[in-house]
Amino acid sequence: MTKKSKLIIFTGPSGVGKGSILEKFFNIANKNQDKVVYSVSSTTRKPREGEIDGKHYFFISKEEFENKIKENTFLEWAIYNDNYYGTSKDFINKCLNEDTSVILEIELQGALNVMHQYPDALSIFIMPPSFEELEHRLRGRNSEDNETILKRLNTAKTELENSGKFKYKIVNNGLDEAVNELYQIFIKETK
After folding, report:
1. Global pTM value
2. Torsions phi, psi of 182, nearest 5?
3. Which of 46, 122, 127, 189 has the least C-beta neighbours within 10 A?
C-alpha cells in the first residue's frame, strides 16, 4: 500500500446505515475522481430486495463457498448469523497495486482478521446514536423476522464493545453528516 492507496476496513452493527453511508460516499468520490472502489464480498445469504448479484455481493451456494475456503482464495471469511461472508485476496491486491484504495464493508470478526494481516489498513467503525435507535432501524427495514432481529441485536452488543479497536469511529446521527465525516477521513488518509 502507498499513501495514495489504502485498504479501508469499514464495519459496524447491522442496521447502523453502512450501506447508505457508502452509497453517498461513492457518489462524492466518483464526482471528485478519487481512486477508490468497493470490494464486493461473497456470501451464502439470500439477496434482500433490490440487491444485485455482483454489485452488492456475489451470492453463492454454501458448497461453492466452502470450496473457495479450501482453495484459500479469501483474504478473510467468517460466519455471521448462520451465513458465510468472504473477501477475495486477488481483487484487493490488484487494486492496491494499481494505487486504488479499496473499501471493505465487513463484519467485526473479518475486520479484526484483516487488521491483523494489514496493520497499515485504515479502520473505521460506524456507531448508532443509541442502541434503541439501532433496534428501531433494524425493525424498520421489515426484511427479517423477530428471531433474526434479536440475533442481530445480540451480535451488535459485542460489536459495539469492540469499537475501540478501530482508528476512527463515526456516529451515524444523520446521513449527510456521517458521509461528510467519512469523506474527510478518506482525504486526510490518502492525499
Report:
1. 0.84
2. -60, -45
3. 46
CATH number at residue 22: 3.40.50.300
Report the domain count for the chain.
1
Q: Name the burial class of residue 31, with classes exposed (0-12), middle (13-18) and buried (19+) by CB atoms within 10 angstroms of its CB.
A: exposed
60 contacts: CB under 8 Å, gap ≥ 6? 42, 43, 44, 68
C-alpha grid cell, residue 153: 441485536
Residue 52 lies in a domain: yes
Lateral strand order in the sheet of 42-43: 58-59, 42-43, 83-88, 74-80
Asked, for residue 110, whether it belongs to a domain, the answer is yes
Residue 33, domain extent: 7-190
Residue 117 lies in a domain: yes
Output the tens digit of pLDDT for each of the chain's 191 residues: 455 789 999 999 989 999 999 999 999 999 999 999 999 889 999 998 899 998 888 999 999 999 999 999 999 888 887 999 998 888 898 899 999 999 999 889 889 989 998 999 999 999 999 999 999 988 888 788 889 899 989 999 999 999 999 999 999 999 999 999 999 999 999 98
